[in-house]
Design a protein that fits this description.
74% helix; 465 residues
Length: 465
């Protein structure tokens, strides 16, 4: 429980509704407490759920976070982190739920006094002193990578040890995440320098200055650890607005004279794009099952579709046949998911809500029914924007046509009742309410001109003209 600025309590169980009412000071304290609790493995899953709800506010306010070593440990691979309801693992991405178990594994194999010294040094550094943080990180990240690399090496030599570590971490996906964490930590400094040089997100155009930083990172890592060059690619992909840009970037890097293996890097990039695209389908399924608004879901799905189309463009020219087939299969799976869960699953509810709007004796709340139909209209109009890309335009057009027919028929029936001037058939107040309901739905579906025509005709009849 926290309190709003006016002193009224806020129930943190309703974070979605109260998120932007929490005072910044309270939010900072809350985050600090959650970060402490996340180190307890039993509490970590619940903490991760709460933090996922807080992220929209944190992204805006960016409150000062507690200087914990676990956060510093995760900083080099921060771009690769994503929130998932399950500890899945897409290539080039790391679930946030994997951080704590992997960090605890590091602590088990680290010298306690040395870890404490790193923590003490971290707390002494000002949060905006990037040079000091990199200097500290140069030693800490190398030390953490070395400790965990030894664990991985021992695991590969002994199947029993590997099995025990996987069980300790909580499953194979977390073990796979550990491998990528170690890979990034081994080249943490050039990764951090690249992250600082590139826009934080939504990179839509790679300038010559960006390309120079990318080539520097590729060349540095290639000379130090050639096998770790892939992690530079993963960071670049995480920053791109469209994954298809990676092909052009690698071609420009090759023209600029990078010493890295461009063809190998492009192949790794394609693998990551395909894997992350497949993960988007599972992410969309989670959003569908948790969504309360068809409009919001359609907007999110539109973004998913753009991502998939970008992936298709990325692998079409440089990817293997298998990778192209995987992307096409993902596109088909998304089409089936949208058709099944976003269209067919809601048909009955929408039909019932629409029917109740013209039936005063239905017993349903007319406001709730109207919201359901309006949400359906808007979500279909948004879905229509990407329906052709998924091959579901016929499904969408069919439902839009049905709504147009049914709403039109309801409007005509309402006008006929008003014309009859039979008060027993329709109360004037109810008539006016229904008229404006029909006007609103007509406006959403057919535009303001048709809606205004209906409004004027209805008002004329209500006024007895």
């Amino acid at each position: 429980m926290s309190s709003d600025s006016d002193g009224s309590p806020i129930n943190l169980g309703d974070l979605d509704g109260q998120l932007f009412r929490i005072p910044e000071a309270d939010l900072t304290n809350l985050v600090a407490e959650l970060e402490k609790r996340s180190l307890d493995r039993k509490k970590a899953p619940a903490v991760a759920q709460v933090m996922a709800k807080l992220r929209p506010r944190l992204a805006i306010l960016k409150p000062e976070r507690q200087a914990t070593l676990v956060r510093f440990f995760a900083e080099p691979f921060a771009d690769l982190l994503y929130t998932s309801g399950e500890p899945r693992k897409a290539v080039g991405r790391i679930p946030r739920s994997a951080i704590v178990p992997c960090y605890k594994l590091f602590l088990e194999h680290a010298e306690a006094h040395r870890v404490q010294r790193y923590q003490d040094d971290l707390e002494e550094i000002e949060k905006d002193n990037d040079a000091a943080l990199i200097e500290l990180g140069t030693g800490f990240w190398r030390y953490a990578a070395g400790r965990l690399r030894q664990v991985l090496t021992d695991a590969e030599r002994d199947k029993n040890k590997k099995r025990a570590i996987i069980e300790q971490l909580g499953g194979e996906p977390v073990f796979e995440a550990l491998i990528e964490m170690v890979g990034v930590l081994e080249v943490a400094v050039p990764v951090m320098e690249l992250r600082k040089a590139l826009p934080s997100s939504g990179l839509s155009q790679v300038t010559n200055a960006h390309l120079e930083h990318i080539c520097t990172a590729l060349n540095t890592v290639h000379r130090q650890r050639p096998a770790n060059t892939q992690f530079i690619v993963f960071v670049i992909l995480a920053r791109l607005q469209n994954p298809s840009m990676i092909v052009e970037i690698m071609q420009r890097a090759e023209d600029a004279g990078t010493v890295a293996d461009v063809s190998g890097i492009t192949e790794i990039a394609n693998q990551a794009i395909v894997s992350q695209t497949e993960e988007k389908i599972r992410g969309l399924e989670e959003k569908i099952h948790s969504s309360t608004s068809g409009q919001d879901l359609a907007l999110q799905t539109e973004k998913f579709v753009k991502d998939i189309l970008g992936a298709a463009r990325a692998v079409s020219g440089s990817g293997s046949r298998m990778q192209n087939r995987q992307v096409q299969r993902t596109k088909t799976e998304m089409a089936d998911l949208v058709r099944r869960e976003m269209l067919e699953a809601v048909d009955g509810q929408v039909a019932s809500s629409l029917s109740s709007l013209g039936d005063l004796d239905s017993g349903r709340d007319p406001v709730a029914a109207q919201k359901t139909v309006e949400d359906r209209i808007v979500s279909l109009m948004i879905t229509d924007r990407f329906a052709e890309e998924l091959g579901i335009e016929r499904d969408v057009n069919k439902r839009l046509a049905e709504l147009e027919h049914d709403i039109g028929a309801q409007s005509e029936a309402l006008l006929s009742k008003i014309r009859s001037r039979n008060a027993s058939a329709l109360d004037p107040d109810d008539a006016q309410r229904q008229l404006y309901t029909q006007v609103r739905m007509t406006e959403l579906l057919l535009g303001p001109e048709k809606a205004n025509q209906l409004r004027l005709e209805g008002i004329r009849l209500l006024n007895g003209a």
